[in-house]
Design goal:
Number of strands: 2
Helix content: over 70%
Strand content: 5-15%
Oligomer: single chain
Distance between the termini: 59 Å
Number of domains: 1
Largest sheet: 2 strands, antiparallel
Order of helices and strands: HHHEEHH
Shape: elongated
Strand order of the largest sheet: 1-2
Length: 156
């Protein structure tokens, strides 16, 4: 029970940090590097699966991947860019912040409910995989949208 509380508090802090970073990022131009690097940095978390405590089954992988991809659609739909001069910026959407809070809330509620039936390590592995499956499609879509706008800038 203590590990569920601690990991939930860590998830809240990380979620708030991510929201702060996202708000701050809207003030500087976007670049391919800023789009691609976060999933690469996050991928190092997959090293947790070297330890049996965090390993997940094929069914758990499928469940986490489907939910992550559904959540990614929401992020893709709420992430918009705008051209200012010769730079591309993220549009700071209030809906995006609310959606991040809602996704964080859903994650916390699901974790509390599922922690009574699923081992905490397995649950941690599932939630990492869910987040990864949410971030990768979102960032790929961001990259393609960025490239589309960048071509518009280059054509002028």
């Amino acid at each position: 029970m203590i590990s569920v509380i601690i990991s939930t508090l860590i998830a809240i802090v990380m979620g708030l940090f991510f929201m702060f970073v996202r708000l701050k990022a809207a003030k500087t131009p976007v670049s391919p590097k800023k789009i691609i690097l976060p999933p690469l940095f996050m991928s190092t978390g997959s090293l947790m699966f070297l330890f049996p405590y965090f390993r997940i089954t094929g069914q758990e992988i499928l469940e986490a991947a489907i939910i992550g991809m559904i959540f990614s659609i929401i992020l893709i739909k709420t992430t918009k860019f705008e051209i200012k001069g010769n730079d591309i910026y993220l549009i700071n959407s209030k809906a995006f912040i609310y959606i991040l809070f809602i996704l964080l809330g859903i994650r916390i509620i699901a974790k509390i409910i599922l922690s009574s039936t699923i081992d905490v390590g397995t649950l941690g592995g599932m939630f990492w995989f869910l987040a990864f499956c949410m971030i990768v499609p979102w960032r790929i879509a961001m990259y393609f949208n960025y490239q589309k706008l960048n071509k518009e800038i280059q054509a002028v």
